[in-house]
Amino acid sequence: MAVQGARRAAGENRLGDAHAYAGRPVIFNIGEVLAQLTEDFPSVTASKIRFYEEKGLVTPQRTAAGYRQFTESDVERLRFVLALQRDHYLPLKVIRDYLDSIDRGEGPENLPPGVSASIAPRPVNPELAAEMAGRARRLSVEQLRVESGASNELLESLLSFGLIAAEAGHFDDHALRVAKACAALAAHGLEPRHLRPFQAAAEREFGLVERVVSPLASRRDGASQARAAESAREISDLCLSLHSALVQGHIARMDS
Questions:
Q1: End-to-end CA, the chain
Q2: What is the pTM of this model?
Q3: What per-residue string of b and e applies to 21-58 under the rule 16 or more CB within 10 Å gives b?
Q4: Domain coordinates of the chain in residue numbers?
Q5: Which of 21, 138, 189, 194 has its CA 20 to 30 A from that of 38?
Q6: CATH number assigned to the domain covering 9-134
């Protein structure tokens, strides 16, 4: 298997000429990236690309409004990742090691036969380094309070109701997201005791997802474990979409 290094001609003709004329790099939104990848990788989705971003495999720039902007290099990295998963069933940790080696300017060792590492290394800059470091942050309770905007009293309540939890005295980014959401909801009069059903619902949803992916998760090999985690995330995203649609339907009927 050779990792494809050329973009689809249609996307190149439609977008490349306009940007090249202005002397700027070609920029794609996530929909345009999907259009380039789906022919070779029909299972690729926006949620999968966001998952790869979360894992640090691709790092698109963001506009002031928060929209992702992908370069040609980002698309090639995605092709590299998708091909290694599809054709060699490699876990993301191994693929991440390959990409880190490429970014350091080294030739990755032990690549599967026929796989080319001829993709551009990721540019190194202070903003990117800070972003990558932030993905693995361990937050103290004070950092959690400052970054979430939650009061000490609110954080204590979130801990007591099990909405957030510390590991070795530190919190992860998931706890930060929960604390931010709960701080905003507190402004509407919703206290942690009102939010316990969300924790119960999350546990039930996880139980459902876990049952679906258990045949893969029960296997010992890393590739199966990686595919189980990826499937779990996709199913969870679909469950969240269903939940949002059902709630928004009830809200819409309030105005009817």
A1: 56
A2: 0.53
A3: eeeeebbbebebbbebbeeebeebbebbbbbbbeebbb
A4: 9-134, 141-190, 202-254
A5: 21
A6: 1.10.1660.10
